[in-house]
Amino acid sequence: MTTAKPTPDNAWGEAWGEATHRLASCEARLVGLWADGAEARMALSTGRPELEFFHYVAVDGSFPSVGATHAPAIRLERAIADLSGLKARGAPDQRPWLDHGRWPLAHPLGDGAPTDGGEPERYAFLGAEGVGLHQIPVGPVHAGIIEPGHFRFHASGETIVRLEARLGYVHKGVERLMAGADLARGAELAARVSGDSTVAYQIAFARAVEAASGIVAPPRAAWLRALMAEIERVANHLGDIGAICSDASFALMHAHTGVLRELTLRAADHAFGHRLMMDCVTPGGVLVDLDRDRRTALRELTTTIRERFPRLVELYDNTASLQDRTVGAGRLDSELAQRFGCGGVIGRASGRDFDARRDHSYSPYDELRFETPVWREGDVNARVWVRIRELEESLRLIGQILDRLPVGPIHSEREPIGGPGEGWALVEGFRGDVFVHLRLGDDGRIARCHLRDPSWFQWPLLEAAIEGNIVADFPLCNKSFNCSYSGCDL
Amino acid sequence: MRRTLIEGLLNGPLTEAAPAVDDPELAALAQEVERAAAASLGRSLSIRHVDAGSCNGCELEIHALGNAYYDLERFGLRFVASPRHADVLLVTGPVTRNMREALERTCAATPAPKWVVACGACAKDGGVFAGSYAIVGGVGDVVPVDLHVPGCPPRPATLLKALLALLNGHGR
Predict the structure, then answer these.
(1) In sequence order, what DSSP letters do the residues of A237-287 get, joined into one string?
(2) What are the Cα distances from residue A131, in Å, to A393, A470, A471, B67?
């Protein structure tokens, strides 16, 4: 990785400006923007397997705003200001994001100055003007079994004129807990950043540690990780396809995908000892091996899903009342998806052909055959179809992995200790690319670990996609996005 | 669709027998609840879920309670959309400072008699997030808790056992 050393002529400052310019002109895509001590840091992707890294040593506690010319950076800069106290100079939106004025301290990753504990300030939502517009506040506690967040609608009759999400309710201070933690504790926390993506986060964390300490997980471990990741993708896509149909009042689909999802979780439990496969991956390898019996059980699972799933796809495709809800609803513009570097199903349903497994390939995906389905329509229907095809690809991948699982150890001989060092990883979770950047200290403990959920670049797009839809279609559109609250709030 | 529906009718149900409440700890808690229950609600409970800061792992398993294998509603247990309709608050997660007020207000909006069930390791004492500046602690640090369901996340069968213990506790 490239981390430019500050030089007397301030070359890093120029490089920062240059990088910002490339983002604004869509020559590069923002992968991450975070603060490490008094430095702002940025990771860019230009289509090559390697990422480009930039940093800016804050001057008077501030750095030049990226968000001023590149909107995807705005919320990340607001989070930096809340957590580290570094201000983005010239940022278009300086409202707090994660800090609701309820923490006992300010800037937990910065000076950590105690706060007076007074009444939290009222949050100023963005407005909308027009005759007969009304506001609908929703949340943070929602009607379903979902995570908390606040949605502020401006509506004209039934039509949504503006939606603004306010998140941060489930902020748990993960990055502060990471600082100074040993690797085992770090892995435990990473597994709980967003429970539905626990495998993706575990792999991203482990690979970042391995990159920072110069070790490599043995082949069998890498293949087992991919096996778990694909099982996680299958389980989540099954859940999402069913839940989207359920939100369109088609419970039959939900009941059947629910059965397949349960079978998947039970197979994961049998194979790896945990239904969601938490705490199965560790820096240097994996913690659970797969014997012959368990391998057979997983093969039976894929056979069962292969048998039953096509009928459900047919059911989806042939139910006019369901299609009536999903086709054309919540359309996300392809250009916006590109500009935001929107990953996962949402990006691929709007024509953004990106898959970290292929474009930033890591073992064993470089040895496996799979397609990355892309749709162009960008509506709820397209997001359902991308999930359907991805699920089928994941079943293929699981088959290939079970066929060709290499023999050997599941953990590297060398323990991933010894700092200092820096490493990063980009892992394709079911929701999109999870980015982890990690700095190990001299003592081998975590000095700084930044975890960027794919939802950072998806939540803002929900606000764009919902415009002009009716309020009653919001749950459907929201479910088709299925962004993580916990993953972004950290 | 017709074939799917006909098969659904002809094939036996996937639903599994209810798990026995064999855990002495749960049984004891159920008795406590029984004592606390002034009036029987009949064999029916309305549950309102509140995520007070969870990683969303618990939510996945609570969702699973509704699938054909566990079929929560056969016991008269159902999830409702408003705390005003609820007998039970099922709270997940460590309580974050940003969610504390929302949890308190949801609890206050739930009519008595009510029970609070803390779901998962985080809900007990903050779990892996304990000690963070952003965390108040477990659910019990904010509202009185009647029953705690262990696990990270609890398995659906464990959740079902706990809820049945609650139901039997005040249904007898």
Answers:
(1) HHHHHHHHHHHTT-HHHHHHHHHHHHHHHHHHHHHHSSSS-TT-EETTEES
(2) 49, 18, 18, 46
Does the distance separating the beta carbons of B102 and A172 come in below 8 Å?
no
Euclidean distance between CA atoms B93 and B138, whole angstroms: 8
- Give me A47's structure tokens: 């289509």
Contact A99, A106 (CB under 8 A): yes
**Would you call A403 exposed, middle or buried from its count of C-beta atoms within 10 A (0-12, 13-18, 19+)?**
exposed
* Per-position DSSP letters for A66-112, written without gaps between them: STTT-GGGHHHHHHHHHHH--EEET-S--S-SS--S-SSBS-TTTT-
Chain A interface test: which of B2, B14, B67 (most A C-beta within 10 Å): B67
pLDDT digits (tens, 9 = 90+) for A29-42: 999 999 999 999 99
CA–CA gap between residue A196 and residue B78 (Å, rounded): 23
What type of residue is B60? L
Task: Quote the pTM value.
Answer: 0.93
Which residues of chain B neighbour A173 with C-beta distances below 8 Å?
Answer: 129, 132-135
Q: How far, in whole angstroms, is CA A200 from its chain's centroid?
A: 9
- How does pLDDT run across A57-115, given as a tens digit for each residue? 998 899 999 999 999 999 999 999 999 999 999 999 999 999 999 999 999 999 888 88
Q: Cβ B129–A172 below 8 Å, yes or no?
A: yes
Q: Which of B82, B102, B153 sits opposite A195 (nearest CB)?
A: B153
Token pair listed for A180: 């100074």
The CA distance from B30 to the nearest CA of chain A, in Å, is 24
Flag whether the ipTM exceeds 0.90: yes
Contact status, residue A41 vs residue A435, Cβ threshold 8 Å: no
Closest by Cα among A123, A98, A103 to A113: A103
Counting one residue from chain A and one from chain B, the pairs whose CB atoms sit within 8 A come to 143
**CA separation for the pair A354, A244 (Å, rounded):** 23
Q: Rounded to the nearest 5 degrees, what angle is found at the Cα of A190, between the Cα atoms of A346 and A139?
A: 55
* Cα(A30)–Cα(A33) distance, integer angstroms: 8
Q: How far is CA A335 from CA A250, A347, A350, A384, in A?
A: 32, 10, 8, 20
Which pair of structure tokens corresponds to residue A430? 């079911």
What is the torsional sign of CA A110, A111, A117, A121?
A: negative
CA–CA gap between residue A29 and residue A47 (Å, rounded)? 9
Q: Report chain A residues whose CB lies below 8 A from the CB of B3.
A: 311
Task: Give the whole-angstrom CA distance, residue A11 versus residue A480.
Answer: 44
Query: CB of B81 within 8 Å of any CB in chain A?
Result: yes
Q: How far apart are CA A125 and CA A127, in angstroms?
A: 6
Q: CA-to-CA distance for A6 and A442, rounded, in angstroms? A: 21
**C-alpha distance from A308 to closest chain B C-alpha (Å):** 10
